[in-house]
Amino acid sequence: MNTILVGYDESEASDLALERSAEIAEGMGARLIVVSVAPTLVGGPRSAGPFDSVDSPQRHAEELRHACELLAARGLEAKCILAHGDPGHAIVDLADEHDVDLIVVGSHEPGLADRLLHGDVSRTIAHKAHRDVLIVHDHHQPGRQRVTTGTDSAELVHAASR
After folding, report:
1. What is the pLDDT of residue 69?
2. Sheet containing 102-106: which strands, arranged edge to edge?
3. Which residue ranges of the chain lie beneath pLDDT 50?
4. Domain assignment present for 24
5. Which of 71, 83, 95, 118 could cross-link 90 (Cys pair, CB 3.0–4.6 Å)?
6. How far does CA 155 lie from the centroid of its chain?
């Protein structure tokens, strides 16, 4: 395993995904790419601009800075990329562009309103990506248990099981 791409938005779920990505990268000597995607508004009023003022590119740039600081504190370097557009599709496109071995994202478990307005990013990635995907779940959610899944890569299964 050479390269891991992690989607990051400074939520609890993406913090867990960043932590898991760092663990795998440390164990396998893999390179990390951290991506934060500022979603573009579709069908919004033109005066508002293409971005949600609450979920702006500036906010995502700050999230990336924070993620890279967390990784640097662990002695890991990461390439940080600020992207725009549909988060799920942007992450898949960047994974293809950088030929990553693994995409890691957190699962926000969005409610119905969020799924209708923004879609389910982890589901989009799992269905569209042509490479391995690890979806990290929040272990503190009621009714959830920690489950480790692997692929046919024995090294990856070993690293993910730690």
Report:
1. 95
2. 78-84, 31-38, 3-7, 102-106, 132-136
3. 47-48, 112-118, 144-148
4. yes
5. 83
6. 21
Q: What is the pLDDT of residue 135?
A: 92
Q: What is the tally of structural domains in the chain?
A: 1
Q: How far is CA 8 from CA 36, 56, 90, 145, 153, in A?
A: 5, 14, 12, 22, 25
Task: Assess if residue 8 is contained within a domain.
Answer: yes
> Residue 39: its pLDDT value, please?
85
**Three-state secondary structure readout of the chain:** CCEEEEECCCCHHHHHHHHHHHHHHHHHCCEEEEEEEECECCCCCHHHCCECCCCCHHHHHHHHHHHHHHHHHCCCCEEEEEEECCHHHHHHHHHHHCCCCEEEEECCCCCHHHHHHHCCHHHHHHHHCCCEEEEECCCCCCCCCCCCCCCCCHHHHHHHCC
Would you state the pLDDT for residue 55? 72
| Type of residue numbered 146 | R
User: 46 in a domain, yes or no?
Assistant: no
Whether residue 155 lies inside any domain: the answer is yes
Q: For residue 147, what pLDDT is reported? A: 47
Task: Give strand pairing partners of 78.
Answer: 32
